[in-house]
Amino acid sequence: MPQVTGVGGIFLRARKPSLLIEWYREHLGVPMTPHGAVTFHWNSGTTPDRPGSTTLAVFPHDTDYLGEPGQKAMLNLRVDDLTMMLTRLRARGVEVLDQTEDSEYGRFGWCVDPEGNRIELWEPAEGM
């Protein structure tokens, strides 16, 4: 029987695509092509205690977790040092939410891109 084996991508609608592409490249280090795409291959950049993974999750329509009510999706980006990433983003004038969260899954923080999309930054716990 055919089945889903992973998340193939996340696609964002943008009013100013070139600005958003450059923002992700400059502030988050996402190696976007000039056409606005990047593919992450999970067999690289992983270690035995931090294997690659992507999560697909559904939230109720009235959740505050994804940001503003009009935001239909949220990126969750793995980072290797959440504290340093948030510090760097703040220094660059990026909107960073004050709260962070520590859980069994790791550490979480949030920033907002120029289009108003909330982005979750995740420093995975060992084994995640």
Automatic annotation (TrEMBL):
<dbReference type="InterPro" id="IPR052164">
    <property type="entry name" value="Anthracycline_SecMetBiosynth"/>
</dbReference>
<feature type="domain" description="VOC">
    <location>
        <begin position="6"/>
        <end position="124"/>
    </location>
</feature>
<dbReference type="Pfam" id="PF18029">
    <property type="entry name" value="Glyoxalase_6"/>
</dbReference>
<dbReference type="InterPro" id="IPR029068">
    <property type="entry name" value="Glyas_Bleomycin-R_OHBP_Dase"/>
</dbReference>
<protein>
    <submittedName>
        <fullName>Glyoxalase-like domain-containing protein</fullName>
    </submittedName>
</protein>
<dbReference type="InterPro" id="IPR037523">
    <property type="entry name" value="VOC_core"/>
</dbReference>
<dbReference type="InterPro" id="IPR041581">
    <property type="entry name" value="Glyoxalase_6"/>
</dbReference>
